[in-house]
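User: Fold this; tokens only.

Assistant: Input:
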Amino acid sequence: MLVLGAGLFAASARGPGVAQRADAAVGMKMGRGSSMAHMGSVGASHSGGAHSVSMGSMSMTVGSHVTNILPTWLAVVATLLFVVIIATHARHAAESDGQRRYWHSGHVLMAFGMAFMFAPASIDPIDIPSGLWSLVFANAAVAIPLWIIVQAYTGRGTNPLWLLTAFDFAAMAYMWSPSGYEAPVTWLLVAYFAWQAALWGSNWMRKLDQHTILGGAVSVTAEGAVVAAVAEPLICYKDLRVSMSAMMLGMAYMFAAMQLLM
């Protein structure tokens, strides 16, 4: 995961060379000033020997067969699905306190990013720049490890689910990056999020929620009792199997769609 995370930051920080080569190869015409990241919907039509592919925020013409992997109806359904996920995790955040509230709020942010990613241009009047999305998620991805280091320095344990959240934020920054994508990294992310969806669906993440990484110091009180600083559980009694599996599958599908349309 550390190697893949490094690849994410390296790919999202690269210049536009990859995107420019892709643009030159397929004759891509950008609309609304957004990047390849904002997919919206995909439709294919014939024009002579080429196919014209139109997406919510862009259109491109390619000289080979194009698979209609993200039609308008699917983009709308996915957008509505992520709106439901937003509402679900916003309720979880409101009902929680401490670290759990911030953790659920992070899922709300991710679901917002995915809703705008899938939204066709016809239902997305806001048009937030892709660079801004990438910056927000990149900052969040960096903030979590820094907080974990502070926690460890003060002897407090950290829930390993926070590391997954940091990695997910880094992946979102890569998804919204206007600098283009690297096929090996993108396909690894497809596999990773499909795997994570399976873990959430099987409720395996609840086992991970019981562990502590870094910190977790053991001390002895004045009365002679041994006290261990364990990490604060994040899932607790919430059933996140459906919402988190759906979000992970949506992210895996979007990464696959992005790479196939490069």
